[in-house]
Each structure stands twice: as C-alpha cells, then as structure tokens.
Amino acid sequence: MSENGLASRRGKVLTTDTMNPSVKKVEYAVRGPIVQRAVEIENELKKGAKKPFSEVIKANIGDAHAMGQQPVTFFRQVLALCSYPELLNSPLFPEDVKSRAGRILQSCGGGSIGETLQFCVRQDVAQYIKQRDGGIPCNPDNIYLSTGASDAIVTILKLLVCGEGRTCTGAMIPIPQYPLYSAALAELGAVQINYYLDEENCWSLNIGELRRALVDARKHCNPRVLCIINPGNPTGQVQSRKCIEDVIRFAAEENLFLMADEVYQDNVYADGCHFHSFKKVLFEMGPQYSNTVELASFHSTSKCYMGECGFRGGYMEVVNMDSDVKAQLTKLVSVRLCPPVPGQALMDLVVNPPKPGEPSHATFMKERTATLRSLAERAKLTEQILNTVPGIHCNPVQGAMYSFPQITIPERAVQEAKEKGQAPDMFYCMKLLDETGICVVPGSGFGQKEGTYHFRMTILPPTDKLKILLQKVKEFHMGFTEQFS
Amino acid sequence: MSENGLASRRGKVLTTDTMNPSVKKVEYAVRGPIVQRAVEIENELKKGAKKPFSEVIKANIGDAHAMGQQPVTFFRQVLALCSYPELLNSPLFPEDVKSRAGRILQSCGGGSIGETLQFCVRQDVAQYIKQRDGGIPCNPDNIYLSTGASDAIVTILKLLVCGEGRTCTGAMIPIPQYPLYSAALAELGAVQINYYLDEENCWSLNIGELRRALVDARKHCNPRVLCIINPGNPTGQVQSRKCIEDVIRFAAEENLFLMADEVYQDNVYADGCHFHSFKKVLFEMGPQYSNTVELASFHSTSKCYMGECGFRGGYMEVVNMDSDVKAQLTKLVSVRLCPPVPGQALMDLVVNPPKPGEPSHATFMKERTATLRSLAERAKLTEQILNTVPGIHCNPVQGAMYSFPQITIPERAVQEAKEKGQAPDMFYCMKLLDETGICVVPGSGFGQKEGTYHFRMTILPPTDKLKILLQKVKEFHMGFTEQFS
C-alpha cells in the first residue's frame, strides 16, 4: 500500500453522519433503553448486587413462552418428527402426529424440511380463512407466507411507498400504535399520519377522527393506506362489527388501501366482544365493497394461544390486489428466498389443528382452552387491580396481551424528567424498573395524546406472579406520587 | 356510503403505475420466468402430458436437500429435542445430543425455543471464528444473528445507502454476481457498480479491473462499499490469499467498506485451493489494516455440508464498525424481532459440532466428509463433461455449488431470440427446459460481458442423475447448434 493510500484513509467509511438517514429516524421503544437497563440490572444481580428485588420481570414484550406458557403439545410433536423423521417409527407419538408430519415432509420436494413447502401451507391457510369467515371463499393464490407478521406488513408498506413531498405516500396508523409501523414508515421514507384512538371510549376507533386526520394529511402528502390493529396493540380494544363496517366504507370513499393486523384474533376476553375479520365484514357488505376495496390482512404463529414467537411463522391474505402488483409482490418476496420452513410448518398446524375424533384432539383443546381462559383471567385481574390505584386509570383489556393504563405524573416529576432530557413516562418507567425490577414500556414509545402518560404492560406473567407484580406497581405509584407531590 | 363516495373510487389504489418504483426495478432471475415455466411443465406432466422426459430437474437453485442430500443426523436430533423436550428422557438419543438440546433450551428464558436465545449463539459463533482463523480474537459483540445471509447482506447495504445523484452511495459488485446484490441495490436506490471477473483466468478478481470500475463510477456516484463473494456464486472460483490481500489493500487505499459473502466457506474442492477468510487475512496484514478497514462478513446454515436452506439461520461479523453505527444496527434489527429460533439453534450447532470423543462425533464426521467428497466429485464431473461439448467452455468449479459455463449461441438463434424479445441465453435455457426438462438459469440473470452467453447449473443432483443430465445438456447443445447453424 502506498503512503498516499494510507493518508487517504481519513476516517471510517460508515459513521452516523454518513449512514442512511432514514435508518437513524427509526425508533423502537419495545426493545429500547428501558430494556438495555433491564439487562444491566440482571447482570448486576448475577454479580451479587443487593437490590430490593431478586429478579427482573420482563412485562415489556409479548413473548408468552418467555413468561412460562407451555407450547402446544401437538405442534411440537409434529415439528420434532419433521426435524428428525426417524421418529416416525417411534411408538412415542400418536398416529395423527405421525400422519401430519408425513404430510408436511411429503410436501417438501426432497422430504426434508430444509427447504420450502409453501404450496400445501397456502392451501391450508385458505381453507382456515374460509371456515373462520363462515364459508366466504379464499383463494390460495391470495396467500403469501411470511417471516412473522412484521415481515408481511413491511412488505405491503414497501409496495405502497412512492412520490416525494406533497405526493409522498402517507399511511394512517392508530395512536397509540405498535411501533413496527412507525419504524417501517421512517425507514421507507413515507409519511406517518396519526389518528388517535378514543381513550374515553375504551380506545375505540372514531370515524370522525379518521376523517380529521385524513383531511389534515392531504395538505402535505398523499394518504393511500389505512392501518388497523384489531384486537389492539398496545391498547387491547376489540373492534365492533359496526366500527369495522364504518372503516371499510371510509376506505372505499377515500380510496385507501386497507391493512388489517389481526395477529391477536383468538385473544378476545371481554363479554360481548367478538373478533370479526376485515375480510368477512368486507364480503358481507356486498359486491360494491367486496369487489373493490383493496385489503391485506395479517396473521402469525406468535400470539393467540400458540405464543410461538421464535418460529417466525406468518401469512397475509391480499384481496382485490391488482394482478400485476401481485406479480411484483411475488418477485419481491422471492429475492428473500422462503420464510423459515419450521415456521411454515407450524403455521400449517395452527390453521389445521387436530380434528374431533383424532387422537390429539382432546389434549389440544384442553391446552388451547386453558391458555385462553387463563389469559382472560389475567386481563380482568390487571384491569381491576390497576384501577384500585389513585392516579392510574386502565381501560378494560378486551383482547390482545397488554394493558395500557394512563398514569398521572406529578408536575414536579415532569420537571425533573425534563431536566434529565427524558420523556416523563420514561422517567417513571426507569424508576419503576430500578425500584421493583418490573420492566414495562413507556407510552411515549407507542404515541399518546400530548400531555397524557401511559405505560404498556403485558398480561403474560403467571397469575400468582402477576398479582404480586400489580401490587408492586400499586405501591410504586403511590410512593412516586407522594415523592413528587 | 354516499353516491359521491362511490364515484370517487375511480380505480385501484395500488397499481404498477402507482407502486414503489424501486421495487419495480428489482430483478431476480434465479426464480424468474424460467422457474415459472418449469412449474407449468410439472403441472402438465402431472396431468399426463406427453413429453420427451418424465420429470423436471431443478438445477437452478442451490437447495441441496431438494436434490436428495440427507440432513446431518446430529443437527436434526438436537432440533427434534428442542422442539419437543419430552424426548430428553427417551433412550433413542445419544447423551451429547441430549446435553446440547438441554443447553440450548436453558439459554431460552422460559425453556422453550419459542423465543430468542441469541446470546449463547453469538458466543459460540465468536469461538468458531476464532478457531477457524487460527486464534485471531473475535468479540461476540461484533456478531449479529440473521435470517439467512441474505437478510444480513441487505441490512448492511441499507445502512450504507445515502445521498442522491452524484453523492448517491455506489456499491461495487462482481459480474457475474448472485442477484440478491443487484436486487437489494435496486430496492434501496443505490448505484450498482460492476466489476468484471476474469473468465479467461478462472473467474479471478483483477485489481486493475476493480480500479477501472471505481474510477468510472466516481464520475457519477459515491462508491463506498466493495462486495466480494468467495467462494464465488455463480462462478465457483476460490480466491487466493494474495488476491484477498490485494483487495483489502485496495479497500484501505480507496476508503471502501468491505462486504465478504463467505457462505460457501466449506465448499472448496479444487487441488491447491483453500478458503481464506477476509477477517483472518485482514488481521494477518497488521494493525494498519486490522485497526482501520471496515469489514462485514457473512455465513449461513444453507450451504456447505449442511444445506439447511429452510431454517434461515445466519450470522454476520462486523469489524472496525463505528460504535454509534453498531447501536443503530442493533436498533434496526430489533424492529424485526429475532431471527427464527430453530435457525439460531442450528447455527449454534454448525459452529459448535460434536467434538472428538463425544458419542455423535464419528457419525457427524462421516456424514460431513461424505457430502463434501461427493460434491467435489460432482464439481469435477461437471467441468469434465461440459468441456467435451463443442461450443461450451466451463471453468473449473473450484468451490461453491455451481458451474457457469460459457455457451456459443449461433447468430441465427440470437436473431430469433431478439425477435421474441428474449435474451439469447434465456431463449437457449427455455428451449433446454422444454426439450429436456432441465431447469438452469440464463447467465443474463447474473450479468456477463456483453456478447457472451452462459448459464448457471448447480452441481447438486446425485452423481448418477448428474451424469445423465450432463449428457442431455451435451446432446441438446449439439442439436441446438446444428438447428441454428
């Protein structure tokens, strides 16, 4: 190398000044500074540090297995056989487990789950959707498998992004939202259009607010897509059928592409609440809607009674998508090769679980029911205990896996947070973590009305632990309020 | 919905005219029109159509299991136990399999592979790299797990993209290339800078050509990154140590970020060829390089003797990356949650296989050796038979999983292809598929010197089948030449 060459190497090629500016704008609070602090505290505890608690409780992420939920036996038995087909000869497994594993292996060209199986899964997904939606047809050609739902959501947003300045694609997202949406929009350089959920009415979606947000946005961008999360994350509401109809009508009138994030479709707990898929409601509204409104809806293996976050299984169904765009979508997903095959296999089992009369059916139903019943109990418990705390107000957790209570933060604490350069609810959550070991995510990471403060806490800890945790939150909040009043 | 509303819905929201223009520019030949035609033919065969062949042989994708390669027993046994931990009590499995599965499950917070395990894998990867590279240290903090190598490659390119017009990031890629690179650059809106590999010298990389490409590119963009694929895809060359040193010196002089795609690191067949990692060579060149040159290198579970494409396991190591950029990288990958956990577990087993003395060691070594030996045999066979065909010239397949022979296409065939609006090698490959059932990818999908034609064919079919396949290619080529002469 020449002297000259060495001299020309003035510094790093890649610095925060010279990196992709869109990536810098990405925020993702669910695994942000609060989680880094949680990991630090865990390490301090391991090294024998004395704290007023003995473990960090991660109520920040919706990972059910991490909180002790057991996997569904049938799913895992089939996956074990797919991994190691020698077990097909073992007497340890029921016949239906073996026949399922055999079917999945056969769908893989070479008989190994080392490769794609796609087609059989897409057919089974279509069958599941048809049955879920009371017989409304579903075409396997409209099903795209994905690496969890996140992957599919980002892919659809990516297709929709174009233009600059006033013609730049705008995407309407709920506030509070799951921050995948804001992160993806920042990365793609699209405009985020906030519509606020109505906290006073149990986080319901209000069409007037949708219209306000849209009219405002049209002044500076081109709104093209409306994102819905139902049941809601982080807000836990379940949309009524009437509300879904209104949203579909609104999308039709305003020429918006609909994205329905329905990953919590089995997680509905409150009396009188039911899950209605956007697809079903769309089709029941008649051909003037079902033949025109473009819809992508998303599901995954990570939530519901399964909780299999690690397998990254997912799918989306697209309805009324232009056929040339579908060809572009197919091309785009091909570049990334296939979604993980164990996740595909798991997705297949989720959409096609054991049937009555099959050997695994009773156990499957028992496990599924127990998990959903226990989640419903924990949802109720969370709401009840939090609402006993002066200065905390928690809406009913109608569905999904989170509570998102509003917290009153005394003015003096708000001031102290500002002096530290922290959002007030980040200040609150950091203190909660340091004093109790409980890790929750500040509401500012999801978005909230100016001047209000919240945190997101999962309902996933086991009931006994959850009671203790909620009691600790209560004591912390009362102490915090006293300290800063 | 108002009449007005209905009238306003003039057409689809998302059409090829209104979609993301960068996505439209993406091309991915490996699963392009040739594969769609192959699927059509398979369906025709299923329906009883009469063809001069009875099956389609997919020599287009590097999926070893699809071509009949058996999975490594140890890997699959451990994965089965991780899926269904009840099997830990079964006498069917050797002790080292059980202890490995136990270790992986323990690394998962809740004891289920339904969630992230990351930390233990990153430590094991660092240990593997250190051992592979003769003791050069590797810090687990520099390891990022990924969903196959593709995911990590796109992520690094994404970090590097910024600017517009003359300041827009340019990325140097080999031609021929694996089309993930061109696809990712198109999608990200970066400038693709082609440097041509030297076909006359066994597809070697020539520094003069690198310099030519760089100087040209500086006239219209900002070249910041140099991508290397070693062993080469689709070209099968293995870089010499001297060449790697030259490339590193070039990157240092010209201030380029290095990306080394090393997913075929165990696939080296030719006498006298060895795999040298960029990391190792960089560190052996001394601190003036090892302390400055920014490098990201990539590996996965999909190739080598493993061939586990479906698990989407992978990692990258970053060296000399700015610490603030690393924080941005960590944030970016967190948004997509974790790579598939079964893939992480598999990656862990790949970097930490059975050791001598452990019960599974002998079988593991036998399987690994047999696979690599057979691939070496098939590499040789492919080169030899193709070179017996007048009008086909095939460089030695020194490594990886593909041959990329140059084919002479008669002028009359070139004309006929042009009339059909097809690239001449696409015309050739379509005819090959229609007449023989053999599916290969036209060279134009990877890039090639103007006026030359190639195809990429995997060496993955079992030896007996490969011989028949090569014989058929020979006959086809001779017939094709005669027909169009």
UniProtKB/TrEMBL annotation, chains A, B:
The cofactor(s) it depends on are: pyridoxal 5'-phosphate
The entry's cellular-component GO terms read: cytoplasm
Class in the EC hierarchy, top level: transferase
What Gene Ontology terms describe what this protein does at the molecular function level?
Answer: L-alanine:2-oxoglutarate aminotransferase activity; pyridoxal phosphate binding
The residue ranges of the Aminotransferase class I/classII large domain are 120-472
Show the InterPro entries listed in the entry: ALAT1/2-like, Aminotransferase_I/II_large, PyrdxlP-dep_Trfase, PyrdxlP-dep_Trfase_major, PyrdxlP-dep_Trfase_small
Query: Which top-level group of life is the source organism from?
Result: Eukaryota
Keywords, alphabetical: Aminotransferase, Pyridoxal phosphate, Transferase
- Specify one Pfam family: Aminotran_1_2
Q: Pathway listed for it?
A: Amino-acid degradation; L-alanine degradation via transaminase pathway; pyruvate from L-alanine: step 1/1
The UniProt entry's GO biological process terms, in alphabetical order, are: L-alanine catabolic process
Family, as annotated: Belongs to the class-I pyridoxal-phosphate-dependent aminotransferase family. Alanine aminotransferase subfamily.
Summarize the subunit comment: Homodimer.
Physiological role: Catalyzes the reversible transamination between alanine and 2-oxoglutarate to form pyruvate and glutamate.
Quote the protein name from its UniProt record.
Answer: alanine transaminase
Origin species, per record, is Scleropages formosus (Asian bonytongue)
Gene encoding the protein: GPT
